[in-house]
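Hi everyone, sorry if this is the wrong subforum. Our group has a chain we'd like a structural model of before ordering constructs, and none of us has done structure prediction before. Sequence below.
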Amino acid sequence: MLTPRFSGLPSFMRLPVLDPDRAAGEIEIGLVGIPFDGATTNRPGARLGPRAVREASTGTRMVNHATGVAPYGLAACADLGDVAVNPIDAAETCRRIEAFHARLRAGGIVPLSVGGDHLVTYPILRALGRERPLGLIHIDAHSDTDDSQYDGARLTHGTPFRRAVEDGVLDPRRTVQIGIRGSMDAADERDWACARGIRVVTMEEALVRGLPEIVAEARAIAGAGPTYLSFDIDALDPAYAPGTGTPEIGGFTAREALYLVRAMRGLDLVGADLVEVAPSLDPAGITALAGGTLAFEILCLLADAVAERRVRA
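Answer:
Right subforum, don't worry. Here is the predicted structure as tokens:
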């Protein structure tokens, strides 16, 4: 806060930019860009998401006005740059993302990653859940539990959570998906998830029951164990986030999205991501603004969780 927020080189939340291999022991939360959209099946552009979210996030300040959380007073945070993705090879990019986040985990750094399309969550879960399967709070328009898309492709932005369950790094019975809506590629996408114990909360159910009741159920499902939060920007209605690859009408308002994220405070969050911001599809920049603001809200959750674990230790 010593210089204007519009000055200097943009980084996530105007944080210092550090080499991830030298941040262990100094940093507790690392913000990471993953500029990859090679697994997108509809409109591309999310590879530019980290850059746009960085720019938009420079408008955030020090204290969350709703929760009172001052994240930089609770945890040492830094921008750790971008994963060096391969823009035309999804499998190789997954290997690089997993290796990058495994190094962060080994260094005791909690990641907040910004995509990129939603496939990027899969290798992150592999890195963080290799010793114990994680619970998941997944806020999205789509369940992303397809088996394959387009001639049998198994690594797409529509398959990450199916792959993670199959690999044993995601506990389906501690997984809840909120805001699911729109047409599906096949009924199996929903049937497979429900058969394995994933709680799928459709947008229609959320509308009828109300968000406080949905949140209470989601928190109970996640429980006290280590949990990951994944927020796809297309959970928002296109009126609030038009710059995304697969928009679906009838989504959450920006105000409802803030409520949903803030209501997850107190969970044992060990990582999180925000994905699918495609700035080229939104010249006005409101999608990136939503992404940057929600990233700050998620950072507040992670900082609170880090501070709580420090007290327990």
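For your construct planning: The CA atoms of residues 63 and 69 lie 6 Å apart. Residues 286-312 form the longest helix (27 residues).
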